[in-house]
């Protein structure tokens, strides 16, 4: 039952009280910083003392203490004559009960809590992605190329950016885009380096994973700090029955300017210096052994790699990492990496392959999963190396690594 004071208020409304003749009511009001209930009542009714009416109408939002307002809370502002039954305009016979003056409001404005940062593990499971899918800060990049198929749909919110956009010309496909070209790609897609970004390859296959690792390397070098590569790609996501869209998201272009850092990139000059012994470092060829040390009929070995390189097959590294037991992934990767004669923590370790793609797998697991510093990618790899007129050499297989792979 309403208290007698509200009946009196209604009577004043019916009588045309000057203070309440012009009501600004029956609307939603978001609380602003510095506002009090009495100020909101004055804005609505022209009378600060009517704040208890707003308090009672919004008890579920405000709570029992009218002085504690949360910034951003949305209050319903009722009309006086909407909520209560009007009484006669002749109020001369009304007995107005004694009403205690309203309490002095203690203004304590509760500021909104800061949003928790969205952090990503470099290698993300589909379950982990599903848990943050609705977060508006998240960016998802779908790398499928023409011919990869669209039958498994798109993860909701995915931007379609074909892997081909991140590659160089035909004679040197491993060369990443120039700073200007990469800035244009990011600007047209609306990709913000300061927002968490998940890279989604098309299929659950090591070569598709390698494409994702290559783009991960580009974005990390461009200044993206929260990155993840989705394990199993879009195909695994769909095969698990998770939510899909049958079209990619519409880009929201914005101006983006980036410069590729050299922290994780080896230049041709650095590679040549390591190959000739002028600079300390290690070269790792990530191709299968048959490409690292190809043999023609009759057992003739064909030169095909860079002088001094060791063979660390990216496919085998990926296989070692794809174990089911939680918590063992880093150990398996480290065991695999230790099977090459490399002082990982002491010297630059340069990864290459035919065109930079497969070697990105070794770089990703060593740098991002195992957390080893000084690991670099030579993206131009053998195709760029040979196209520049540099010599190739006969590869020498490590017996220990060869036994492990077979």
From TrEMBL:
Residues 134-246, 348-394 form the Rhodanese domain. Residues 27-77 form the LysM domain. InterPro entries: LysM, LysM_dom_sf, Rhodanese-like_dom, Rhodanese-like_dom_sf, Thiosulfate_sulfurtransferase. It holds the Pfam family Rhodanese. CDD domains: LysM, RHOD. Residues 1-21 form the signal peptide. SMART domains: RHOD. Gene3D superfamilies: LysM domain, Rhodanese-like domain. Keywords: Repeat, Signal. Transmembrane segments: none annotated. This is Thiosulfate sulfurtransferase.
């Amino acid at each position: 039952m309403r208290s007698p004071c509200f009946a009196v208020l209604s009577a004043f409304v019916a009588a045309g009280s000057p203070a309440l003749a012009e009501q600004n009511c029956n609307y939603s009001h978001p609380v602003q910083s510095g506002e009090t209930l009495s100020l909101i009542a004055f804005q609505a009714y022209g009378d600060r003392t009517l704040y208890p009416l707003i308090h009672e109408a919004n008890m579920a939002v405000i709570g029992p203490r009218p002085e504690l307002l949360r910034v951003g809370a949305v209050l319903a502002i009722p009309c006086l004559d909407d909520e209560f039954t009007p009484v006669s305009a002749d109020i001369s016979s009304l007995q107005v009960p004694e009403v205690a003056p309203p309490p002095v409001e203690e203004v304590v404005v509760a500021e909104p809590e800061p949003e928790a940062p969205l952090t990503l593990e470099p290698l993300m499971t589909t379950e982990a992605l599903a848990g943050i899918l609705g977060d508006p800060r998240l960016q998802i990049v779908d790398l499928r190329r023409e011919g990869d198929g669209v039958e498994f749909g798109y993860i909701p919110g995915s931007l379609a950016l074909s892997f081909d956009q991140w590659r160089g010309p035909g004679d040197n496909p491993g060369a990443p885009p120039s700073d200007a070209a990469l800035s244009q790609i990011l600007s047209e897609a609306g990709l913000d380096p300061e927002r968490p970004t998940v890279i989604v390859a098309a299929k659950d296959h090591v070569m598709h994973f390698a494409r994702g690792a290559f783009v991960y390397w580009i974005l990390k070098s461009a200044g993206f700090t929260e990155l993840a590569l989705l394990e199993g790609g879009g195909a695994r996501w769909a095969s698990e029955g998770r939510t899909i869209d049958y079209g990619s998201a519409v880009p929201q272009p914005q101006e983006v300017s980036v410069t590729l850092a050299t922290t994780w990139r080896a230049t041709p000059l650095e590679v040549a210096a390591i190959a000739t012994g002028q600079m300390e470092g290690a070269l790792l060829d990530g191709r299968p052994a048959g490409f690292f040390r190809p043999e023609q009929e009759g057992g003739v070995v064909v030169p095909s790699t860079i002088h001094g390189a060791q063979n660390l097959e990216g496919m085998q590294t990926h296989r070692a990492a794809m174990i089911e037991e939680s918590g063992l992934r880093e150990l398996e990767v480290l065991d695999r990496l230790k099977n090459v004669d490399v002082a990982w923590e002491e010297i630059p370790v340069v990864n290459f392959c035919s065109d930079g793609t497969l070697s990105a797998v070794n770089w990703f697991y060593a740098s991002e999963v195992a957390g080893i510093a000084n690991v670099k990618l030579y993206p131009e790899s053998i195709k760029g190396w040979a196209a520049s007129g540099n010599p190739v050499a006969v590869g020498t297989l490590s017996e220990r690594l060869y036994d492990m792979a077979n």
